[in-house]
Amino acid sequence: MEIRHFGARVFLYDPVTAAFLLVRHRRHGFWVEPGGHVDGNERPDGAAVREVREETGMEVQLIGASLPKFPSDCEDFLTQPLAIRNCPIAPGHVHMDFIYAGIPVGGSLNFSERKPEDVGWFPLEEIVRESFLAPANVRLWCRYCAQHVLLYLQSPLDRKNRDDGK
Ligand SMILES: [Zn+2]
Predict the structure, then answer these.
(1) Residues 20/10, Cβ–Cβ less than 8 Å
(2) List of the chain residues with pLDDT < 70
(3) What distance in angstroms lies between residue 82's CA and the mean position of ligand 1's atoms?
(4) How far, in Å, is the centroid of ligand 1 from the Cα of 39?
């Protein structure tokens, strides 16, 4: 039988330096976005924030996909992921990954879980080059999430509506 786990992953973009925070994949050695399993009884958006903190020491504000705000007391929304990816990671083992974009809001690089050379900020212009050691989809996601973050930061009204929903 196939094992299915929920996962949460974050493309953390610093708009000031135009760089992403990436971690080195433990088995394959290339650079990927931080993330991991959603634990039992955990919200996926909570898992995303926790994984970034544990893997890198950084505090992240997730920036969800745009969602209309409905005026109702009884509706509470989790941060909307940009996608939910169905990803076979080994034979018989599938991850359903909630994919988020985010910006840094505090913390500092902390290597309790990883070696310093396995965590780093990389400029988008470096990531999108073929020579950068990352899967093609990571390059595409970084490009997309940078756009998403910049659009969000440029639309304060929209931002306010979504923040009110928290
Ligand atoms: Zn798993």
Answers:
(1) no
(2) 69-74, 111, 156-166
(3) 20
(4) 10
